[in-house]
Design a protein that fits this description.
The protein is mainly alpha-helical and 180 residues long. The chain is built from 10 helices and no strands. The protein has a single domain, classed as Hypothetical protein af1432 (Orthogonal Bundle). α2 runs antiparallel to α3, α2 packs across α8 and α7 packs parallel to α9.
Length: 180
């Protein structure tokens, strides 16, 4: 494993310490590690794997893109920036936010789109693994939004696209058990 990847993993773990997934229990870093693993399974390079590890750091901590650039280089910073939602989107309802993400992804680089597919796949897997806190309607809305985002990313990685489609099928089946 490269120094870039191990440094990014350590930095992400520190940035996300004390953060949990929606269930309030699972450590947030598990999501970041799964996204990086999916990107590695897609045979992406160390720049993309490091960027996957850092993909939520700017949104979820006090770290800025300039610090990412200083620590990990301009290419990683460019990818992380491409994966970071505009802060103005934060208060929007999920369907509007997902529509804006999809528009953004349609113009994004292949590296950004590849990591975004892995991110959405991990989110759907967590919806299945960690259903606490989700209603059937919220889950269905999330799945629809994730599909819209990934549809804008298609062509970046056939492997990740199939993996995402499988996660959608599993999530659709699982949400039937969720409370209304």
């Amino acid at each position: 494993m490269s120094r870039l990847i191990t440094s990014a993993a350590l930095f992400a773990a520190q940035a996300h310490q004390d953060q949990t997934r929606k269930d309030g229990v699972a450590p947030y870093i598990n999501h970041v590690l799964e996204v990086a693993d999916l990107v590695a399974c897609a045979e992406a390079g160390e720049i993309e794997i490091a960027s996957a590890l850092l993909h939520d750091v700017v949104e979820d901590s006090e770290t800025g893109v300039n610090e990412i650039s200083r620590r990990f280089g301009p290419r990683v910073a460019q990818i992380v920036d491409g994966l970071t939602d505009d802060p103005a989107w934060e208060e929007l309802p999920r369907p509007e936010r997902k529509a804006l993400q999809a528009e953004h992804m349609a113009r994004a680089t292949q590296s950004v789109r590849l990591i975004k597919i892995a991110d959405q796949t991990s989110n759907l897997r967590d919806l299945v693994r960690l259903p606490k806190g989700w209603t059937r309607r919220e889950a269905a809305d999330y799945i629809a939004g994730a599909k819209r985002v990934v549809d804008a990313c298609r062509g970046a990685s056939p492997f990740l696209e199939v993996t995402f489609d499988n996660a959608v099928a599993e999530a659709m089946q699982k949400i039937e058990e969720f409370p209304s």
